[in-house]
Write a structure and sequence with these properties.
It is a single chain. By secondary structure, this protein is mainly alpha-helical. It folds into three domains: 24-168, no CATH class; 186-251, no CATH class; 260-312. Helices cover 48% and strands 10% of the residues. The protein is built from eleven helices and seven strands. It has helices spanning 49-59, 63-70, 111-115, 154-160, 163-183, 192-203, 205-213, 215-220, 227-233, 235-251, 262-308, and strands at residues 24-26, 46-47, 71-75, 82-86, 118-123, 132-137, 151-153. α5 (163-183) runs parallel beside α10 and α6 runs antiparallel to α10 (235-251). Bound molecules: iron/sulfur cluster (2 copies). One iron/sulfur cluster binds next to loops.
C-alpha cells in the first residue's frame, strides 16, 4: 500500500487531480477479491499522532513501546522534522498483516489505510491562511478494486471508512506540519530540543504525559485546576493540548499561559545550582591539593632520610 497521504504535508508529489467531497469514484474492496492483502504486502504508511494513539491502545502497549517496536523514523522536511512510518518485514509487508486473515488491527488501522485508494490533500491557496481539504485517487497495478462495479461518492467513502474520526483528531497537527513546511526559512531550522519535543508530543504521548505532569512543567505553565486530572487519564485531551503546545514551541503562538517570572525563577535556580557546583569543584580541588601536599611532605622527608642516612 503506497502512502497516499504524504502529499498533505509530508512530501510534495506531482499535483494530481484534486477530487472534492462530492466527486465520485469506482471502487470496492472486500475479502473475496483476488488481490486481497496485496496492498498490505508492500506498505509505506506514514503515521499521524492519533494513528499512534489508536494502535498503541489496540496492541496494549505504551506509546514508547509501540514507536520502538512497530515504527521507523524518517524526516518530513529538510529541517529534520521527525516523522514515523509503520515498520515492515524484509519483504515490505506490514507487521500488522496476519497472513490470510488480513489486518489484525483493522478497526484501529491508520488513516492512510482507511483512505486508500484515496489520498487526503491539504491545499492552501496563495494568500490564504487555512488549508482546504481535497482528495486524490491512487491507482496501483496490484489493486483490482477499481474493476468492482460500485460507484461511490468521496464523502460516502470517507464515512464508510470512518475517516472523519481520525481527521478530526489529526487535523490541527496536519495544519501545524503544513505551516512548518511552508514557512521555510521564515521560521528557520528549529533547535534540536524543539525537534525532540515535536517527536515526543506527536508520537510518544505517554512520555509527553509524564512531562506535562512533572513538577517543572507545573512551575512553568499556568493551567486550569482540572487540567492535570484530565490529561492524566484522557489521551485525546492530552493530544489536543500537545498541538497547542507545539504551536507555542515552533511558532511562538502563545496559548499556554506561562507562570509570571517562571523563567526568571528558573534562571535564578540554575544560577544557584551552578554556584553550588562551582563551590563543590573548588572544594574537591582544594582537598586534592591538600592530599598531594600531605603525601608530598612525607615523600620529601623520606627522600631526605635516604640521602642523608644519618637521621635517627
Ligand atoms: S495496518 Fe493493516 S491495513 Fe494498514 S497496511 Fe498494515 S495490515 Fe494493511
Ligand atoms: S482491492 Fe486494493 S485495497 Fe483492496 S485488498 Fe485489493 S489491493 Fe488492497
Amino acid at each position: 500500500m503506497t502512502d497516499t497521504r504524504p502529499a498533505i504535508p509530508f512530501r510534495s508529489a506531482v499535483m494530481p487531480e484534486a477530487l472534492r467531497a462530492d466527486s465520485r469514484i469506482q471502487f470496492r474492496c472486500h475479502k473475496d477479491i483476488s488481490c486481497f492483502n496485496a496492498c498490505c504486502k508492500q506498505t509505506d504508511v506514514t503515521l499521524a499522532p492519533y494513528d499512534v494513539l489508536r494502535l498503541k491502545r489496540r496492541l496494549g502497549l505504551t506509546s514508547t513501546e509501540f514507536v520502538r517496536d512497530f515504527t521507523v523514523p524518517f524526516q518530513m522536511d529538510g529541517d529534520g522534522l521527525p516523522g514515523i512510518k509503520l515498520k515492515t518485514d524484509e519483504s515490505g509487508a506490514c507487521l500488522q498483516l496476519a497472513g490470510d486473515a488480513g489486518c489484525c488491527v483493522y478497526e484501529d488501522r491508520p488513516t492512510v489505510c482507511r483512505y486508500y485508494p484515496l489520498a487526503l490533500l491539504a491545499l492552501r491557496e496563495k494568500d490564504s491562511a487555512t488549508a482546504e481539504e481535497r482528495y486524490s485517487l491512487v491507482k496501483e497495478d496490484h489493486c483490482r478494486g477499481y474493476e468492482e462495479p460500485r460507484e461511490i461518492g468521496v464523502a460516502e467513502y470517507r464515512a464508510e471508512q470512518d475517516c472523519e474520526t481520525f481527521d478530526a483528531m489529526n487535523r490541527e497537527w496536519y495544519q501545524l506540519v503544513l505551516k512548518k513546511k511552508s514557512a521555510g526559512p521564515a521560521v528557520g531550522r528549529p533547535p534540536q530540543a524543539s525537534l525532540r519535543l515535536f517527536f515526543m508530543a506527536s508520537y510518544d504521548i505517554d512520555t509527553f504525559r509524564r512531562f506535562v505532569l512533572s513538577e517543572n512543567f507545573r512551575q512553568t505553565y499556568s493551567l486550569p485546576d482540572d487540567f492535570q486530572a484530565e490529561v492524566e487519564t484522557d489521551d485525546e485531551a492530552l493530544l489536543s493540548f500537545s498541538y497547542r503546545f507545539l504551536r507555542q514551541v515552533l511558532f511562538g503562538e502563545h496559548s499556554v499561559q506561562e507562570v509570571a517570572d517562571a523563567w526568571d525563577q528558573r534562571v535564578v535556580q540554575r544560577q544557584e545550582v551552578w554556584a553550588a557546583r562551582k563551590q563543590m569543584e573548588i572544594e574537591r580541588r582544594q582537598a586534592a591539593e591538600d592530599r598531594k601536599y600531605a603525601e608530598g611532605g612525607d615523600g620529601a622527608r623520606g627522600d631526605f632520610m635516604m640521602r642523608c642516612g644519618t637521621c635517627p
